[in-house]
Amino acid sequence: MSGTLILVRHGQSEWNLKNLFTGWRNPNLTEQGEGEARTTGKALKAGNFAPDLFYTSALRRAQHTLDLILEEMGILNVTITRNIALNERDYGDLSGLNKDDARAKWGEEQVHIWRRSYDVPPPGGESLRDTGARVWPYYLTEILPRVLRGEKVLVAAHGNSLRSLVMVLDKLTKEQILGVNLATGVPMVYKLNADSTVASKEVLGDMSGAH
Q1: pLDDT over threshold 90, residue 23
Q2: How many other C-beta atoms lie within 10 A of the C-beta of residue 7?
Q3: CATH architecture of 4-18+29-90+133-203
Q4: Which residues pair with 8 in a beta bridge?
Q5: Cα separations (Å) of 146 from 9, 87, 149, 150, 200?
């Protein structure tokens, strides 16, 4: 068995609360989101999952989540790698819009296709496949080699950037991934084999929709 990969979706953001499409826009965490991040830190500390390396996106809701996790774990003065490759899916023209307003403008069915299809992007934005096309190479070149060296790697990122990783790790089809929603602030702990396949997966504080 090789190392450990810990994936955490950021805590609730201000725009999650307001039901807005966020994408690459940059709202911060709500008070609830901060609490979710701290709970994640406590759960990881209680499970003795002390990471060696830390990755997050270029967006502050993920960065803030990671900072709070590390604070709760008592991990200070570490190097954090921030990269745009781990950013949330870009929602393009939908970014900043209320989801109900978007449905009123384009219709329920069209918005549903943009949100939940695998390869149909919203205007000016990315599909889940597009998101994976930047997440997967970064994972393969920067993150996976470190896990295979036996290190524990923590990635704090976003619902769709992490869904694209979960799709590969859990060997899900493009149809199966559509039904997967990742809960905010719930860590998924993967132990990988030497050939990069998954030896085990544990969802800490397993919540509805976190599978």
Answers
A1: yes
A2: 24
A3: 3-Layer(aba) Sandwich (3.40)
A4: 156
A5: 20, 20, 5, 7, 18
Rounded distance between C-alpha atoms, residue 164 and residue 92, angstroms: 18
pLDDT of 3-14, one tens digit each? Answer: 999 999 999 999
Catalytic residue among 34, 36, 88, 126: 88
Question: What is the reported pLDDT for 11?
Answer: 93
| Element counts in the chain: helices (H) and strands (E) | 8, 6
Asked if 10 is an active-site residue, the reply is yes
Residue 100 phi, psi dihedral angles, 5° rounding: -70, -40
Spatial separation of the C-alpha atoms in residues 161 and 135, rounded to whole Å: 6
Q: Which residues contact 115 (CB under 8 A, 6 or more apart)?
A: none
Q: State how far the Cα of 69 lies from the Cα of 71, in Å rounded to an integer.
A: 5
How many residues in total does the chain contain?
211
Residue 124 has pLDDT above 70, yes or no: yes
Give the closest residue to 65 by CA, choosing from 92, 86, 89, 85. 86
Average pLDDT value for residue range 21-46 = 96
In tens, the pLDDT along 139-195 reads: 999 999 999 999 999 999 999 999 999 999 999 999 999 989 999 999 999 999 999
Token pair, residue 158, equals 């976003």
Q: Cα–Cα distance between 165 and 203 in angstroms, integer? A: 15
